[in-house]
Amino acid sequence: MDLTERKRAEIALRERVKELHCLYEVFRVTEAEEASLESMLEAVLKLLPPAWLHAEDTVARIRFRGREYATPGFAATGWMLTAKFGNAVDAGEIAVAYLNPHPDEFDGPFLAEERSLLEAIADRLTGAIERRRIDNSLRRSHRALSAINACAQIMTQAASENDVLRGICETIVGQGGYRMVWVGMAQNDAWRNVLPVAYAGTGDEYIANLKVSWGDNAWGQGPTGRAVRLRRIEIARHIDTDPAFAVWRDAALKQGYASSVALPLVVEGGECLGALNIYSA
C-alpha cells in the first residue's frame, strides 16, 4: 500500500468511526424515556454536523409537527441531503447541507455512507416516535379506565346530581390527567345556550366568560355545540388551528388547552341534555 492509499484508508476509517459514534449517540438519545420529544430532536440535531466529512461546513435542520429545529446558520443550499421520518399522518424531515461546494463523492459532495447514516437516523426517529405514541396511548387508556371506575363509584355514592357532575369532572381531571373538564346543559331558550353546571381543572376565567350555543350559529360550531346538535362525539384535535374553534381560541390557548373532545349526554328516547367537555394540554 503506497502512501496515498494509506492516507485514503485512514480518512475512510476516521469517517466510519465518526458515523458509528453518531449513530450510537442517536440510539442513546432516543432511548431516554424521560426526555421530551422536543429535547430528543434537539439532541439528535446537534449530533449531525460532526458526523459529516466536511463537519466545519455542515449545517442541519429537523422539521416535525409544524416546528423547525436548526443548527446556527442553516440554509437550504444546492448541496443538501434529506430523509423523511414518521408516517403519512405525522411526517417529518431531516436535512443536512453544506454551505459551500466540495468535490463530488457519491451523492454530489456526500459519501454513500453519509446517505445511509441519514436514512438510519430517520428510521430510528420513526421507531422512537411510534414507541412514544404507543406508550402514551397505553398510559391514557389506563388513566381513562381508572377514571371510569371512579366515576361509577361517584354515581352510586353522591347525594345529588350536582355532586355527581362535580365529582365526575374532578375525577376525570385528577385521574385522567386532563387539563380541564366541564359539563354543559343544553337550554331551550331562543339562543340555545349551553350552560356550564360543573367543572374542574385549570379554567376559572375560561368558564366564567364561556359563551356556547348548540344552535347552528357562530357560537355553535365548536365541539360542544356540534355534539349537542348532532348527538355525536366531536373533537378539536388542534385548537390553535381549528377554524371551528376560532371564537374561543385565544381564551383556550391562554389556559394551555391544545385539544378537546365533547361527548353528548343522550338519554333514552334520543334527547340530548348537554355535553361532557374534556380539554388536554
Structure description:
This protein is α+β, with helices and mostly antiparallel strands. Helices cover 43% and strands 22% of the residues. The chain is built from seven helices and nine strands; from the N terminus they run H-H-E-E-E-E-H-H-E-E-H-H-E-H-E-E. A hairpin with a 2-residue loop joins strand 1 and strand 2. The longest helix is centred in the middle third of the chain and has 46 residues, at 112-157. The mean pLDDT is 87.
Please specify the SSE layout and strand pairing.
Elements: H1 3-31, H2 37-47, E1 58-64, E2 67-70, E3 80-86, E4 91-98, H3 112-157, H4 161-176, E5 180-186, E6 194-201, H5 204-208, H6 223-230, E7 234-236, H7 249-254, E8 259-266, E9 272-280
Antiparallel strand pairs: 1-2, 1-4, 3-4, 5-6, 5-9, 7-8, 8-9
Report low-confidence residues grouped into runs of 5 or more.
none
Structural class: alpha+beta
| Spatial strand order of the main sheet | 6-5-9-8-7
Number of strands: 9
Percentage of residues in DSSP E strands? 15-25%
Structural shape? elongated
Distance between the termini: 63 Å
Mean pLDDT: 87
What is the gist of this entry?
With 281 residues, the chain is an alpha+beta fold.
List keywords for this structure.
4-stranded antiparallel sheet; alpha+beta; 5-stranded antiparallel sheet; 281 residues; elongated; 7 helices; 43% helix
